[in-house]
């Protein structure tokens, strides 16, 4: 697989059901970042001065910038930001049919939706999405045989 | 349909000419034209008389990608620069008068600079281009005025669009 570059990465939302998703590409994304940030618990014993850390809980934010073009997919995010509605998202480092693409998928809510309206700015929204309370699993994704394959994050 | 940057640059210049023409409504021998200024232009102008405004594409570029887009085609910010020249020979005796020059300077400000300062989305050129910068570096070139009794004004406009 060739080296991955940011411009080729994809962020999708699901317009179908969780079990039978229909992935819609968000075309206005300028940049995006998948955070995999474990909180840790420290374990220290007298046997060693080294501070050992064990992962405990996981923060899994997806942050980025989207062009304010009032397109249909932009408006999906805008509506969800203010209505606090759940979005099923999938962030990949390639296309959803490109074998080897990987990323994460979960149901989350938008908790940041900022717009810098400087007079000379092309307008973007800085957004942040985090997993929300849901019965559906948060998942890692690997595209295999031309389709996303999901694995629950234990 | 792929974005053809040269075709678009020419279309932008055509649009600029149309805007100036619509605001000015020149009567023969005056006219606005989307064409390049050459020595033949000046020769024809000298013979025909009148006031002429020439509009031509000056350059285009991709400023930067804006978004990932779809199908391997990113959404980009494009710049199209357009140059405008205002020309008229003084046909009176002696040197061009201050009042004659002032009239042309005001004309160029009103029907070129002011007409092309587009900031309301409803008035964007060709529906999608806004004025990023607009400059009149020359209202009345002194060398042409003194040497040829020719009023020569220049305006440079940079339009941006997302595509």
Kindly summarize this structure in a few lines.
Chain A is 8% helix and 49% strand. With 154 residues, chain A is mostly beta strands. At the A-B interface, loops of A face strand 2 and strand 3 of B.
Keywords:
heterodimer, A: 154 residues, mainly beta, nine-stranded antiparallel β-sheet, two-stranded antiparallel ribbon, 11 strands, 49% strand, globular, B: 163 residues, alpha+beta, 4 helices, 34% helix, elongated
- Count, helices of chain A: 1
Structural class of chain A: mainly beta
Query: What kind of sheet is the major sheet of chain B?
Result: 5 strands, mixed
- Radius of gyration of chain A using CA atoms only: 18 Å
Question: What would you say this structure looks like, in words?
Answer:
- The complex is a heterodimer of chains A (154) and B (163).
- Chain A is mainly beta and 154 residues long.
- Chain A is built from one helix and eleven strands, in the order E-E-E-E-E-E-H-E-E-E-E-E.
- Chain A has one helix at 72-83, and strands spanning 10-14, 23-25, 29-34, 37-43, 52-59, 62-67, 87-92, 102-115, 124-131, 139-144, 147-152.
- In chain A, the strands form two sheets. In chain A, strands 1, 2, 3, 6, 7, 8, 9, 10 and 11 form a nine-stranded antiparallel β-sheet that branches.
- The model of chain A has no long low-confidence stretch (mean pLDDT 95).
- Chain B has four helices and five strands; from the N terminus they run αβαββαβαβ.
- Chain B has helices spanning 5-24, 39-48, 98-116, 142-148; strands at residues 31-34, 51-70, 73-89, 130-138, 150-162.
- In chain B, helix 1 packs across helix 3.
- Chain A binds chain B through residues 7-10, 25, 27-30, 66-67, 69, 122, and chain B through 65-70, 74-75, 77, 162.
